[in-house]
Design goal:
Helix content: 25-40%
InterPro entries: MnmA-like, MnmA-like_C, MnmA-like_central, MnmA-like_central_sf, Rossmann-like_a/b/a_fold
Number of strands: 19
Family: Belongs to the MnmA/TRMU family.
Oligomer: single chain
Structural class: alpha/beta
Shape: globular
Strand order of the largest sheet: 14-17-16-15-18-19
Catalytic activity: S-sulfanyl-L-cysteinyl-[protein] + uridine(34) in tRNA + AH2 + ATP = 2-thiouridine(34) in tRNA + L-cysteinyl-[protein] + A + AMP + diphosphate + H(+)
GO molecular function: ATP binding; tRNA binding; tRNA-uridine 2-sulfurtransferase activity
Largest sheet: 6 strands, antiparallel, barrel
Keywords: ATP-binding, Cytoplasm, Disulfide bond, Nucleotide-binding, RNA-binding, Transferase, tRNA processing, tRNA-binding
Amino acid sequence: MKVLAAMSGGVDSSVAAARMVDAGHDVVGVHLALSQTPGTLRTGSRGCCSKEDAGDARRVADVLRIPFYVWDFADKFNEDVIDDFVSSYARGETPNPCVRCNERIKFSALAARALALGFDAVVTGHYARLSDGRLRRAVDKDKDQSYVLAVLTAGQLRHAAFPIGDTPKSQIRAEAARRGLAVADKPDSHDICFIPSGDTRAFLGARIGVRRGSVVDQGGAVLASHDGVHGFTIGQRKGLGIAGPGPDGQPRYVTAIDAASGTVQVGSAADLEVWRLTGHQPVFTAGVAPTGPVECAVQVRAHGEVVDAVAELTGDELAVRLRTPLRGVAPGQTLVLYRPDPAGDEVLGSATIASAA
């Protein structure tokens, strides 16, 4: 099989490429240049896509003796991931840019180019597994990335490979060291790759500007002013600009955001509980939509709590009733459905949360 290995310059994608070489596939490595200013996107373990990362990927390719290229996807990444991230926050939503990158860059734009060039599959270092065409959680549950891959269609999964999903991260590092790969001890990237400073509020503020509004309590009383709803997300406790706890002496959290009026509402932890979710743009990873209510397990954050639920597709919307409430669910997040079998590791599908109640 002729495969294109997406090589970020990290240990995971490096070992993934190496395993495909060992398996006898015809492997070509490619590093995606996603930043329009690549010299600025790594600070220690923060950020990615820097010149340092491209160099690390090239050195691994040399060790593996495979062809290596750098493909410039910076403009498309800026439009489909960064611009989407900014506009989503401006609407009072909380998006996951890793989900959008997988959906629109790695397994859409990159895969399309790979298939056009005659490759059979795109290989990545994601911690997930494919079994009989079904997307499943990784063996290493702490590193599992099936959540951020749950937006992929059955067609996209047919042309994907995740060679390291069956191995714990510690063993991946040890394997990289045995292979003589210099990235064996390279720190994992954290936070949002295109915000190496880690200051999301400042990043958004520089792009959205000042859009003043009010912080109000559950009764509508104004508690403080703010410079824009992009500085808040549902469930946020710190940085609210209000003095002290609520009247009951308990901490206050962001419970609702109205971007149109610029209003950020705060309340108690109990006010964060939701029992129903509505999702749009549903994707079912096996390629078949359910015909009625489906018992499932739901996850709404990459490493968040998993709760039992019932999901049903109505038209082009996915309605989910939770058996146990979740807290701090925000529009723009991705809800992922898992099959509630003893293993609980098969992904059924996903949708973008439009509302929660």
